[in-house]
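Sample intake sheet
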Amino acid sequence: MSEIPDGISPDARETWPHPELIQSWLGDADIDFELRPGEEVAVHDDPEAQAAARRFRDVLGCFASGITVITTMSGDEPVGMTCQSFSSVSLDPPLIAFVPARSSRAWPLIQRAGRFCVNILSADQEHVSAQMATKGTDKFAGLDWTPARATGSPVIAGTLAHLDCTIHAVYEGGDHFVVIGRVEHLETQADDAAVTEPLLYFRGRYRTTDS
């Protein structure tokens, strides 16, 4: 229902514009802008701001990276999110980092749990990345997983490797958070002969190293 000011006359009340239309006249509305797979950030509707956001995304898209799924348990329910922004940080102590958006719905649950597992996706798991990046669905529907050894976070079947972590530190980084995790346990796929190519992301598309 429209937000109509008090005291307005009945005839004007019937034709009072919808709040979305009013906002379009005023400008400066927030627009979701996908920076990474499944990761949207708010960009104002100013054309210069949108152009700058697109240029930022396109330039950073020239850096090819792997795709991971960050998982945890929230009560008895598995939680997951697709994450392209993952990196090693330190060998001693063993630290890694990932960077969730402030708008992420999974991150608050991961932070509250204090633990998580990084699942490194293989080339045939594009559907896993897409499923974990979709809002309003059962993200684990049809996926096989087992509890990680140290934290119990979901280890998704078929991944190249996983790192079982506890949260070491969290820093604010603009419209994202920089999360440092301490690695408690890590494994590659058990059968090295069966290891496939990695799932990569480059210039807005899924890729792999297999030519």
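Comment: DSSP finds five helices and 14 strands in the chain. The first helix runs from residue 10 to 14.
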